[in-house]
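Tutorial, part two.
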Amino acid sequence: MPTGQILKELSRYKIGTFAYIIHRHSLLRPDKEAYVYGEQRLTYAEFNAKVNSLVHALQELGVKKGDAIGILSWNCLDYAIVYGAAMKGGYVLSRFNPRLQAEELDYLINYSEVTTLFVGPELVAVTESLRSHITGVKNFISLEERAPDMICIQELLDSSPTEEPDVQMEEDDGFFIIYTSGTTGVPRGAVYSHREAWDDTRTYVINLSIQSDDRHIQVSPMFHIAGDTILRSILYVGGCNIITKFFDPEATLQLVQDEKATHVAIVPTHLVAMLAVPDVKKYDVGSLKYIWYGGSPMPLEVLKKGLATFGSVFGQGYGMSESGPAICHLPKEEHDVLGRPEERILSSVGQPDIGVQARIVDDQGKDVNAGEMGEIIARSKHNMLEYWKKPEDTSSTIVDGWLHTGDIGCYDENGYIYIVDRKKDMIITGGENVFPREVEEILYRHPNIHEAAVIGIPDPYWVEKVHAIVCLKQGASCTAEELIALCKKNLAGYKAPKSVEFMDSLPKNAAGKVMKRELRGKYWADSGRTI
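Running the prediction step on this input gives:
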């Protein structure tokens, strides 16, 4: 860059692209810490240089702008560098869930049409087992360490130039594909360009009041839309992302204390785990501005315990892989309502975000009145463009510009939206509709319950009956009869569980969501029913 030409150099990349964001921070705050991962720390100048090197290396391997590249890894610093290379090299990044089985990965990698695959050390073996099936992949690149028959990313970074690559991004260029969690069947890829990601990112920057001096603990997986959007939002303003490979409740609290973190984004199961940490209040978490939660419904009793333990730092976001994800949010200011009449809004997901229109409609697509239940639909500039190579699924999910979420909810006179449950999770027992979430809320009132999930299982008389699966706190005990009685005391009789199952832990996906499809599987396996 010529001396004195910084303003001209700031104009290299087009506004509305994330190439512009990375380049901008490398010029205006080159010594600012961008990423922390264990003992590794990268400034924005260092991050930009590594990203540039990777783009040059990929170009040498024949990877061109617009090509699909994939990554199969847990969170790590190299993951962020690969994401940055997609931003500046014009590649469409597909991120694969490391918890998927080989057969599922086989399908997804071929479905995505990636030609280059970055692989974390824990996923080398499964990748090797798939080599003969994923023949479209020409370049296998290992992350964090060397692996047999793979190119090591560090060697590429060390041997490639660091100057800006000769690539220009447009707002409508493909950016990434986020895959649905697969809890309802075969995952589908939600496609985004820089334009949608940019709009969604700015929404979250506003929602979480993110500033350039903020520091975020990245516990959410980076392949998930929730982990992705908070990572992007911190990057957007030039803050610092502190990456953790796996969520550990004690380690997270320690990191908040040691790194003076301001933000952490979690799912409800993470909060349950943190509240169970012995002497949880010994950690100094006074630097926290926001504990942002979402991903699945937060039990009200758990949230109340969180507020009592960590203070008024909780905020909620509601969205999904197809929505960018921003649809609604409930800011932390509106969480400070315990013991007041407006406490009821803590059971809501808040009001629609700026730039988002949300409605609730019946099965005929007609708007319902306040207090009536229907499906939540949303429209914004950051909804996905489409499902990758699935036009029929796209047309049934996005109708006249409105994304049909599959979530059942209602709204109040002030526009607060209350999610009752997933449409697919609704239980029909004896002709009556039961939404599992309201039963789970009651179960969480029992002092010995650690986690709870409610599903419908086959029954010869009721056709489907309410079945509770619970995990007890360590060393605690209770009986099925106690839990059923608790529910009958607080709910209509038909909503109370007719059976209770005790488990040590509930199956969860990498984003921390309870896999109800897996819980239902053993009961419905021979029924022919789609679960």
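The longest helix spans residues 44-60. In part three we will examine how such features are distributed along the chain.
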